[in-house]
Specification:
Blueprint (H helix, E strand, L loop, with lengths): L1 H21 L4 H23 L7 H18 L1 H17 L7 H13 L2 H13 L3 H21 L6 H14 L1 H4 L8 H21 L13 H14 L1
Helix pairs in contact: 1-7, 1-8, 2-7, 2-10, 3-10, 3-11, 4-5, 5-7, 5-8, 6-7, 6-8, 10-11
């Protein structure tokens, strides 16, 4: 869990620095930072989504479509919005324009999707190799500065998501090491599906449309599951 703890510390430190810096910026510059963040998020999403080139794109397509249907049936977006609203009410002191909910969800997805989070956590738990998560901690630290500067202190709440998600992978590494191996169809499909979701987040950051990314979260389970079933045959 050492790598995950360092990762969490980097996110908290980056958030603190971002809030201190962002609070001093005029509203016009904060708007530019947010739009710039949206563009960078779009690039990250496209890069991750293109991981399907290493596997069958139908795994990703099926995962996203089935995941969207399951998420809509479970009303995941509404439940996440409710959680975010409660966090927002707790942290914003009555400020109706608070972005705590958006910051929490955006940062959580950005920090938890990608091969570094999965492979790094498994390596950390299985053989005590922290290098991948130390690299991820550096990247997440800088990303949290930009996120917090534009979206505020809610980014810090994503540290809890990272702790639970990567911590669970590290503690259960023995169960995942034969499935989510580096370069496997399951990992590539999950990463690509995650990239599609991040593209959805970028569209919201750019104020283009809200595709309700939360309802597509089951795609992160369906995509690797479809790939695993297909490889079994």
């Amino acid at each position: 869990m050492t790598g995950t703890i360092v990762n969490v510390a980097a996110i908290l430190a980056g958030t603190l620095f971002g809030v201190l810096v962002g609070g001093r910026l005029p509203e016009r510059l904060q708007e530019r930072v947010l739009r710039g963040l949206g563009l960078i998020t779009l690039v990250i999403g496209v890069e991750l989504a293109l991981e399907w080139k290493g596997t069958n794109s139908l795994f990703v397509l099926g995962g996203v479509l089935l995941g969207g249907l399951a998420g809509e049936a479970l009303r995941i977006e509404d439940r996440l919005a409710g959680l975010g609203d409660r966090l927002q009410a707790w942290m914003s002191s009555g400020n109706e324009h608070s972005t705590v909910s958006e910051a929490f969800f955006t940062a959580s997805l950005l920090f938890c999707v990608g091969p570094l989070a999965v492979v790094g956590a498994i390596q950390d738990g299985l053989i005590g190799d922290h290098d991948a998560l130390f690299t991820k901690a550096t990247l997440d630290g800088f990303a949290s500065i930009a996120l917090a500067a534009s979206l505020g202190p809610g980014v810090a709440l994503a540290a809890v998501t990272v702790l639970v998600y990567q911590g669970a992978l590290s503690l259960g590494a023995g169960a995942f090491d034969s499935i989510l191996t580096e370069g496997s169809d399951a990992l590539l499909s999950m990463t690509s599906a995650g990239g599609v979701l991040i593209i959805g987040i970028s569209l919201k950051l750019l104020d283009l449309t809200d595709v309700k990314v939360g309802n597509f979260l089951p795609a992160l389970v369906f995509a690797p599951a479809i790939a695993g079933i297909a490889s079994a045959f």
